[in-house]
Please model this.
Amino acid sequence: MTSPPRLDNLITGADDTYPEKQQSNLIAVETAGAAAGIKFTWEIDRTNTIHARHITSDTGWKISLDRGLDIFQKFEMNDVFSLANRLQAYRQVKAFEVTYLRKALDQRRSPCGKQVGVPRF
Model:
């Protein structure tokens, strides 16, 4: 059995309208991931210089999310008979793209932060 993935860091822009809600949602994702053995950390880019959101893994992958984590269309959360309310598979999504990029060996880092890959002499 393989171990669950470890995600090093999510970087996203600040939500100027609901910053407290954004932070509590990110903490909830972090907590839920921890319960499944997934290390998830996040940071908010306050420089307003990024547009796309991305996640980096400890295995050398960068996952670019053009919409961030906001991919679902609105649905009626108070309708107890709506399948979309309880099952993600029945929710409509907004158009979005996910791009997977493999970092060069000399740019990868181990979980303890040390550089791994091609030795440098």
In short: Confidence is low (pLDDT under 50) at residues 110-121. The two ends are 37 Å apart (CA to CA). The helical segments are 19-35, 83-86. The CA atoms of residues 89 and 100 lie 23 Å apart.
